[in-house]
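Q: Sequence in, structure out?
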Amino acid sequence: MTVHITEHREGFGPGLTEITRFGEGEDDTGIGVAVLRIDAGNTVEAVAGTETAWLLMSGKVKADVGGQEAELERHSLFDESASAIHVAMGESVQIDCETDTEFTIYTIENPKPFKSRIFRPEDVPNEHRGAGQVGGTCARFVRTIFDGSNSDPNTEMVLGEVITMPGKWSSYPPHHHPQPEIYHYRFTDPRGFGHAELGDTVLKVRNNDTVKIFGPNDHPQCAAPGYGMYYAWVIRHLPEDRYTVPEFTEEHTWTTAPDAEFWSPKEG
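A: Exactly. Output:
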């Protein structure tokens, strides 16, 4: 199944590993996803061939993007918010790695110019969502790095992260949107797993898995008890239909009410 990519469960080697590409012959989302691992002391220099986002997964680096400079550092996907670099086609990027470093890289075919940006953790709110929703069973952190609210209209990408608490749900209530999306997963423990829905299809996801999501499929997620589940999410805007917010499936929207009534066992 090309919508569920599982061959990287043992980890990623040094250098660049492509997971998806835009223009694929089957199940093409129009989104490229890759992992880049760089040893300490090395420098990466690149000129973006299209709209590109570099999302720091771990490491300490100095980044120079079109004259903008920043020091970025991350030790934990779960306890720290995101740092990312978002550049237009033709922009030069230089990254000096002080420690062993890992990025996920996202690309979308887009020749239009826009001002490149470096996002630091203080730029990316760590939103606590769902704390009181149906008994706290949907508590999660949502980090929207950039979307239509803080991006140039010439961009074609939306990027963010979700932290799903052990034993709880995220991307809930079930929702959908016509724009294609990709989720890339990590867990607090290599033994961790979760379940991802694509409409009526349920996938068992593990560390380093990647899932392609197409409209109109609902795509709620849950993490197994004992395991925190991270996923980076990237969405491609469609021509004349830019992503704003998802559409919740009406059958389950009652779960968002603060006073929603639902069964729970009686004490004793």
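The CA atoms of residues 175 and 249 lie 5 Å apart.
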